[in-house]
């Protein structure tokens, strides 16, 4: 079964269900939560359902899917999500409601999903974050991801230039293997020292 239930000390990671749409709406409609994500905040439950169908239901239809609702054990109600693209570059993405920021929850959830991806045989994970969102980069570092390079992209649909930092966690490939898709795709790319 794809997207199997995962548990951690504080969390239940499971599939989103139709009854989770109000909780998902709260997450997707928050401007601050979605500030660094590649879409605009949703404005209705109808837009939330469309987002669910595009981002989560399609992952659940694949043989191997990683699209998790992040729920606290105390009530099993979604407070965030963690996803991994099944196809290259196996991009890890996550979001968490603001009330739970800086408590290690995104790290705990991302670590559990990364471990599952490794167990399932994914060769590596990548993740990118806007250079102006270093908190997201700290989550990547805490789960063992290594910074590889930065690149500038004209970010859509928001249509402004963003410098992204690309991180990678290798499982079944050489330690020095780097997924170069973004390096090759964008003219402005470089390695930062920080």
Automatic annotation (TrEMBL):
Q: Which InterPro entries match?
A: Acyl_CoA_acyltransferase, GNAT_dom, N-acetyltransferase
Q: Which GO terms describe its molecular function?
A: acyltransferase activity, transferring groups other than amino-acyl groups
Q: Which PROSITE patterns match?
A: GNAT
Q: Which residue intervals define the domain N-acetyltransferase in the entry? A: 11-167
Q: Which domain of life is it from?
A: Bacteria
Name by which UniProt lists this protein: GNAT family N-acetyltransferase
Q: What is the lineage of its organism?
A: Bacteria, Bacillati, Bacillota, Clostridia, Candidatus Avichristensenella
């Amino acid at each position: 079964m794809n997207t199997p239930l995962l548990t951690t000390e504080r969390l239940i990671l499971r599939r989103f269900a139709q009854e989770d749409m109000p909780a998902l709406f709260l997450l997707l409609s928050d401007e601050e939560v979605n500030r660094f994500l590649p879409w605009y905040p949703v404005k209705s439950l109808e837009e939330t359902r469309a987002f669910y169908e595009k981002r989560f239901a399609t992952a659940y239809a694949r043989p191997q899917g990683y699209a998790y609702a992040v729920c606290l054990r105390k009530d099993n109600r979604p407070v965030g999500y963690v996803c991994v693209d099944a196809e290259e570059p196996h991009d890890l993405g996550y979001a968490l409601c603001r009330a739970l920021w800086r408590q290690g929850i995104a790290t705990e959830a991302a670590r559990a999903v990364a471990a599952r991806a490794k167990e399932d045989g994914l060769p590596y994970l990548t993740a990118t974050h806007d250079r102006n969102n270093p908190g997201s980069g700290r989550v990547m570092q805490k789960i063992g991801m290594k910074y590889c390079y930065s690149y500038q992209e004209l970010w859509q649909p928001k249509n402004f230039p963003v410098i992204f930092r690309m991180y990678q966690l290798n499982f079944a490939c050489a330690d020095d293997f780097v997924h170069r898709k973004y390096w090759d795709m964008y003219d402005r790319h470089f390695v930062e020292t920080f």
